[in-house]
Request: fold
Amino acid sequence: MKMPQHRQCLQGICRLCGVERSIEKGRRPIQKEKLSANIVAALGISVAGDIQDVHPPFVCKVCEGKLKRWWVQVKHKKMKASCYITPVTFERSSCDTCCMFTGDAQEELSMADVEVAAKDVGLVTWQGPGCLQIMKMSTSTCRPAVYLTIFPNSRWDLVISGVCIAREDHAWLEFGESLSQEDVRRMLKDISSKYVCVGNQDFPALVEAEKGGNGQIPVNITLQDSYVEGTIRHRKCRFLIQEEGRCTVCRVHRSDLMAKTSKIKSKSNQAISASSSMPNKHMTKKQLKDKVTLLQTQRRTLKRRVNVLQDKVSDMLHKECVDLSREQDEALREAVVTSNDEMEGILRPNSYSSM
Reply:
């Protein structure tokens, strides 16, 4: 029968977010009953009324952590405590693994109807092999800014300004893994009526400073953002917003980028000497060029000084030296050898004179 097989499929799905990650290797799965009080308080969902073979039995570690953080905020009397979990409805769901439908039969998603609905709200569509792609064009670049891909099994992917949007990372997405006709209509309305956050594109000097030694493009400017398609975005960017411009998250992050830009400018204006102990990896390109120029100048100066000193030593030797004949040289050597023992007694050992 398919029911035991479907029951096995539900084991790995989280009861709250619907992501298949509730069973991890080396960890005991978290029973939803243990968190029932917090689930009711935070989300208004009573797991006591769940139906077997329709609702999953476990909760993933991520949702457990979000519930715990919410409870800590509530205990500290934070009025704006948020749980950041978008619960999934399981009454109308299907299992692709065992091809079994649970609950009431949901309305079948028609690609033709979706394409018509997208065109009605001014979006561009493209029918590909096994998917329908819906695009929203950018008014500034005349290129697609939003890609919504819908598959025949009602699954979907959303890419905004080069960033793949994941439901578990972006709590503002209110749609499950599968879309109904009503979900598609609401999503298309959101995409067509809202603006795309422009991020922070006006920091070219900051991007240039973060490039690698061989000109590699950075993937992020700070630990809280990402650099995609020439735009710096905060990792919690809202992407689709009501008014044209930046979302609140990217607007707040802008102050951090300005502070870093000011720090880099002051650092680039700092004079660097050839004997500077600052590591090269912490210098700007201009400072590295200045240091190389100073080192080359010092090298040429030292070579000139060496040549001058060699000429002076040669002149001194030429003026103060006396040329001896062969007989005189032999007599001098013999005298030195004969008086060697006497000289060792007079001169200190290892002194310059004894050598």
User: Anything to note?
Assistant: DSSP finds ten helices and 13 strands in the chain. Residues 282-320 form one domain. The chain has a mean pLDDT of 80. The two ends are 104 Å apart (CA to CA).
